[in-house]
Amino acid sequence: MKQGLVWVLASLVFVACKEDTKMAPCESDFFYDGSPFRQGEVGTILPDYNSGEDIPGVFSASEGLVLKDNLTGEIDLAASAPGAYSIRKTMIGNTTCGNRIAMTYLSILPPPSVLNRADNGDGWGWAGEGFVDQEDKMEGLAAIKTKVNGAGNLLLLQHHLSEPLNTQVSKALGELHVWFYVSDPSQFDPMAEIGQFELTSSGGPDKNEFTWPIILNNMNINAGWNELVLKFKDASITGGDPDLAAINFFRLYMFTKGDSDSPVTIGLDDLRILAAE
């Protein structure tokens, strides 16, 4: 009887010790805050954790994503290619985990393609009194503007690129981002289509062209600078789709109201093409 009692007590002590030495649970819930990331905006990034940050592991990722440190999960975004990725953490050093895997996902977008920074008049043409404004601008050294006086006048700003631009985006995801200046929106008919934004690969208007109508009320245009995002998928097409690997011409034109009686100025700054987030 004594022998049996000793065996039971020894078993209980063994189980208790085993419970006392059991390692942390196998939950390592991690993520990369801020995804999708755009190349050029962030260099490297470490994971954040909802739980299990202290559980050791080895990180791995699908091809194209560069891990700077496979023990911490630090990612070199600048060296990675644009795309959608899965990142795995295989937990080690915990016998209860059995190399369990935790996983998360992130996306990297290509850097912006600069259509024109509007820092000088190179390649620009206009209708009206065109000028380079170094004072009232949104980015860089200057903005491009033009002004007219009186009723029914045409305002036009257009740019011929010296080299075709590879936008690195698709029609489904591409966006034209532009700062658009209007000194006095009341000099235009707010409900009518008074002009267009145009983007082409033909070297001029009306061929291989995306167009977006200008209707001030629909665009919430205020006096001063307005940030516009024109989605490629929403554009009308004239003369066939543009070659998004060879964009070479941009144009904006607008007509003032027939009874307009005051000077009006329009302007552009920081024209960029991005993939939608």
Describe the 3D structure.
- There is one protein chain.
- The protein has 277 residues and is mainly β.
- The chain has 2 domains: 23-109, Immunoglobulin-like (Sandwich); 113-275, Jelly Rolls, CATH 2.60.120.260.
- Helices cover 8% and strands 45% of the residues.
- It has 2 helices and 21 strands.
- Strands 10, 12, 13, 15, 18 and 21 form a 6-stranded antiparallel sheet that branches. Strands 11-14-20-16-17-19 form a 6-stranded antiparallel sheet.
- Separation, N- and C-terminal Cα atoms: 74 Å
CATH superfamily of the largest domain: Galactose-binding domain-like
Report the CATH topology name of the largest domain.
Answer: Jelly Rolls
Helix content class: under 10%
Mean pLDDT: 89
Q: Please provide the count of β strands.
A: 21
Structure class: mainly beta
Major pleated sheet? 6 strands, antiparallel
Taking all Cα atoms into account, the compactness measure Rg is: 29 Å
- Which residue ranges are poorly predicted, with pLDDT under 50 across at least 5 consecutive positions? 1-23
Number of domains: 2
Second rung of CATH, namely the architecture of the largest domain = Sandwich
CATH class of the largest domain: Mainly Beta
The percent range for strand residues is 35-45%
Shape summary:
elongated
Oligomer: single chain
Order of helices and strands: HEEEEEEEEEEEEEEEEEHEEEE
Put simply, the count of helices is: 2
